[in-house]
Design brief:
Layout: H1 21-32, H2 55-70, H3 92-99
């Protein structure tokens, strides 16, 4: 209609509402592959496909990589012929038979 104001914080592709312009630009880039203006740059993780909104969020994300590496599995499944897919910590029988 004539005279209607268009809210520039609403995604024209899916209707997502962003409270700030940078959040909308991030949404457009990560969800719809729309490149942001040259004045905006979103940092990328060098270990995966993650795109961060800010450098501080990227640093926090990278800590998750380091933590995951520290928590990597060191259980030998040679005992009993099990594989990782059959392990379930929610199944007490399997958990107790390996670790109990």
């Amino acid at each position: 209609m004539h005279g209607e104001k268009v809210d520039a914080r609403i995604c024209e592709y899916c209707g997502y509402f962003a409270s700030k312009r940078n959040l909308l630009l991030y949404h457009l880039y990560t969800k719809h592959s729309i490149e942001p203006p040259a004045t905006y740059s979103f940092p990328h993780c060098d270990r995966c496909d993650y795109v961060a909104l800010s450098i501080s969020l990227l640093q926090k994300h990278k800590l998750a990589h380091d933590t995951a590496k520290e928590l990597s599995c060191n259980v030998s499944l040679d005992q009993g012929g099990l594989d990782h897919a059959s392990l379930s910590l929610s199944n007490p029988f399997i958990f107790d038979s390996i670790f109990g």
